[in-house]
Amino acid sequence: MNLNWLKNLPALQRNLIGGAVVAILLGLVVYFAYLPRAREVDSLKADLAQINSEVSIYQAKVKKLDDLLAENDRLQSQLIEQRRQLPEEHEVADLLKQVSDAGASAGLVFRLWRPGAPKINPSQLYQELPVEVEVSGGYHQVGVFFEKVAHLDRIVNITDVQMAPDNTGGLVTRLTATAFAALPPDYVPPDPKAAKPGGRPLPKRKL
């Protein structure tokens, strides 16, 4: 290409043509190189923002999972402790003997010890084994008896306490001692559709 004609042009025109050529080249570079790369960078930034958002969501889920695992461990420990306080039915006889021994060591004389029929608690979680008890002894002896029962390893509730003087000038105390045991192995719970909603947690000590 013969460009000698440019030499014959005035300097101002040559500078204008040179500037135009440079501008065109810069425009081509911007259009074909910079803009596509800029669009690609913007797209990558959008993808990165979405990934960061998803990471935050997953981190929140992981934290929630850790909290759930910790809560599960706590509930498992609580369940183990509650099961420890709920003896098997064949172990209840030993527990009730501890109640009897507590009364005897407190100085009470047992006049009645009548086990009642086991009853499944409405919660369907355990069974209740009540014993009708009648003892003779003073207020102090009865108080010591209640304290000893409250400190047994297994739960025994003392309810329906009635005190009255007897014909010899002493004091007769009637009460119900209720132990709690795990459900029998062959127990079949009723149909949930027919069961009443709600339930009661493991009973607390009552004296």
What does this structure look like?
This protein has 207 residues and is α+β, with helices and mostly antiparallel strands. It has two domains: 11-85; 89-181, Ribosomal protein S6/Translation elongation factor EF1B (Alpha-Beta Plaits), CATH 3.30.70. Helices cover 51% and strands 19% of the residues. Strands 1, 2, 3, 4 and 5 form a five-stranded antiparallel sheet that branches. Strand 4 and strand 5 (171-181) form a beta hairpin. The mean pLDDT is 79.
CATH classification class of the largest domain? Alpha Beta
Number of domains as seen in the coordinates? 2
Shape: rod-shaped
Integer-rounded radius of gyration: 43 Å
Topology as H/E string?
HHHEEEHEE
**Low-confidence runs:** none
Count the DSSP helices.
4
Biggest sheet, open or closed, and with what strands and sense?
5 strands, antiparallel
Number of strands: 5
Subunit organisation of the chains: single chain
Mean pLDDT figure: 79
Provide a compact summary of the structure.
The chain is of the alpha+beta class. It has helices at 4-7, 11-85, 92-105, 139-150; strands at residues 109-115, 119-120, 127-136, 156-165, 171-181. 51% of the residues lie in helices and 19% in strands.
Record keyword descriptors for this entry.
2 domains, rod-shaped, five-stranded antiparallel beta sheet, 19% strand, 207 residues, alpha+beta, 4 helices
